[in-house]
Amino acid sequence: GDSVVQTEGQVLLSEGDSLVVNCSYESTQYPSLFWYVQYPGEGPQLLLKAMKDNDKESNKGFEATYRKETTSFHLKKDSVQESDSAVYFCALSDTVTGTAGEAEHKL
């Protein structure tokens, strides 16, 4: 079935450090890819969404590029702030079958 595999565990960074959270996926179709962020005490909210190969999306200093060849959608930020402390979820949605998968990563 469809699934995503994400950088595991908690990452400790200092302000100004760069961040990369890896996200790779397996799908028999051509899924849409998403990053969600969940700040302490809040529900998950959409951070980035990519619908097709080579889509490069950015929001709040974060960016990710849909790479179909490497089945990846890695989340990057050049300089993290204390306010970026949150749980980050990588997810996919298969528009053909309607299945979905997700993984989470805490920053």
What's the SSE blueprint?
Layout: E1 3-6, E2 19-21, E3 23-26, E4 32-38, E5 45-50, E6 56-59, E7 62-65, E8 75-77, E9 87-93, E10 100-106
Quick take:
Helix content is 0%, strand content 46%.
Can you put this structure into words, describing what you see?
The chain has 107 residues and is mainly beta. The protein contains no helices and ten strands. It has strands at 3-6, 19-21, 23-26, 32-38, 45-50, 56-59, 62-65, 75-77, 87-93, 100-106. The strands form three sheets. Strands 2-8-7-6 form a four-stranded antiparallel beta sheet, with no helix packed on it. Strands 5-4-9-10 form a four-stranded antiparallel beta sheet, with no helix packed on it. The relative contact order is 0.33. Keywords: Adaptive immunity, Immunity, Immunoglobulin domain, Receptor, Signal, T cell receptor. One of its GO terms (cellular component) is T cell receptor complex. Residues 2-107 form the Ig-like domain.
Main features:
globular; 4-stranded antiparallel beta sheet; 10 strands; adaptive immunity; Ig_sub; TCR_variable_region; signal; immunity; 107 residues; mainly beta
How confident is the prediction overall: mean pLDDT?
Answer: 88
Task: Sum up the overall morphology in one term.
Answer: globular
Number of strands: 10
| Low-confidence runs of at least 5 consecutive residues | 95-99
Helix content: under 10%
Q: Approximately how much beta-strand content do the residues carry? A: over 45%
Strand numbers in spatial order across the main sheet: 2-8-7-6
| Main beta-sheet strand count, sense and barrel state | 4 strands, antiparallel
Query: What integer value in Å does the Rg equal?
Result: 13 Å
User: Helical element count?
Assistant: 0
Roughly how many Å apart are the termini?
28 Å
Summing up helix and strand content along with how strands pair, one would put the structural category as: mainly beta
Order of helices and strands: EEEEEEEEEE
Keywords: Adaptive immunity, Immunity, Immunoglobulin domain, Receptor, Signal, T cell receptor
Protein name: Ig-like domain-containing protein
Pfam families: V-set (PF07686)
Domain Ig-like: 2-107
